[in-house]
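Colleagues,

For the teaching module next term, I've prepared a clean inverse folding example: a structure given as tokens, and then the sequence designed for it. I'd like students to try predicting residues themselves before seeing the answer, so please don't circulate the second half yet.
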């Protein structure tokens, strides 16, 4: 099969012929139809997040089940499924027993302990897969397995109340979905972006208001919930001043930089900073369901496997509107 190999730190992605993997007990073989490129792929390629090179990246894969390993009972041949980052835990640590395998120290991560999706085929744990609603195409579904799942989890953990104001920092792969999910729920939704081109697009995606930075956000009334999806720590930090009293600042972007804040900014507003990941499969189910009902539109640019490296470069520069998807 053909696969996009990441061979070392900061080396160009390369398409290579390698042996097709075989599903073992409780695993299935996916024929990958779409695999989104997340900004985390850039962090992994640059070595900011630990990976063992050479490897196949891609943690937003979706496809069709073409082979079942021994013992699989929950999945059938031909089913359309995807997998998120965490496919399974060790099964016996405290967090696995609590049903929170994202915290398991020995979890099986897509593009980490398990092969990633930038390839024609991949083996995944059967019980780690989620079925894709019929009304979503593979290209639409793929970005929901990381970007959509992440931002919907972030919005849910913030527990926004009726009539609250939700701001989104960073209108990219994650942010364009965060805006739409917040608007679809009826919250007053504010996009925070410097880019003129994204200001117009943000309105089209359902933003009630667009501001350039935290200062403008504060002057325009602030936000009760800020969903930080930007990969710039500087931009993220600057927006904390736009939080309203009792506000929640949800951190979802990955930065390899220290994050310094003046605690007085939090204290007198009784504000909270909350880290958020993919907070449990029920949120993946909801994120897919909302998209399947046509309430949000996943915006993608598709690339052939052979163009993987140019797609990567476009993602790295932030030039994609809004999610690059490889279609092997
Ligand atoms: Zn991701
Ligand atoms: Zn565990």
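(Answer key — instructors only)
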């Amino acid at each position: 099969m053909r696969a996009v190999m990441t061979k070392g730190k900061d080396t160009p992605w390369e398409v290579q012929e390698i042996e097709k993997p075989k599903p073992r007990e409780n695993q299935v073989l996916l024929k990958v139809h779409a695999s989104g490129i997340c900004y985390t792929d850039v962090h992994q390629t640059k070595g900011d997040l630990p990976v063992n090179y050479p490897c196949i990246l891609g943690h937003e894969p979706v496809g069709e089940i073409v082979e079942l390993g021994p013992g699989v009972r929950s999945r059938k041949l031909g089913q359309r499924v995807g997998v998120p980052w965490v496919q399974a835990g060790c099964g016996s640590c405290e967090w696995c027993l609590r049903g929170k395998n994202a915290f398991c120290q020995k979890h099986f991560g897509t593009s980490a302990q398990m092969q990633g999706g930038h390839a024609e085929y991949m083996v995944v744990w059967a019980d780690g897969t989620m079925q894709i609603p019929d009304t979503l195409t593979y290209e639409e579904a793929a970005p929901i397995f990381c970007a959509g799942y992440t931002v919907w989890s972030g919005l849910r953990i913030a527990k926004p109340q009726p009539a609250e104001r939700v701001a989104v920092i960073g209108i990219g792969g994650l942010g364009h979905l965060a805006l739409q999910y917040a608007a679809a729920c009826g919250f007053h939704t504010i996009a925070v972006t410097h880019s003129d081109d994204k200001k117009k697009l943000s309105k089209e995606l359902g933003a009630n208001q667009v501001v350039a930075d935290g200062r403008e956000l504060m002057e325009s009334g602030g936000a009760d919930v800020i969903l930080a999806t930007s990969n710039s720590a500087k931009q993220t930090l600057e927006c904390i001043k736009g939080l309203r009293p009792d506000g929640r600042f949800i951190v979802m972007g990955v930065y390899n930089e220290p994050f310094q804040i003046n605690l007085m900014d939090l204290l007198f507003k009784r504000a909270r900073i909350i880290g958020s990941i993919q907070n449990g499969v029920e949120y993946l189910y909801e994120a897919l369901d909302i998209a399947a009902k046509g309430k949000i539109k996943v915006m993608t640019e598709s690339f052939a496997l052979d163009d993987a490296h140019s797609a990567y470069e476009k993602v790295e520069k932030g030039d994609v509107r809004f999610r690059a998807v490889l279609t092997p």
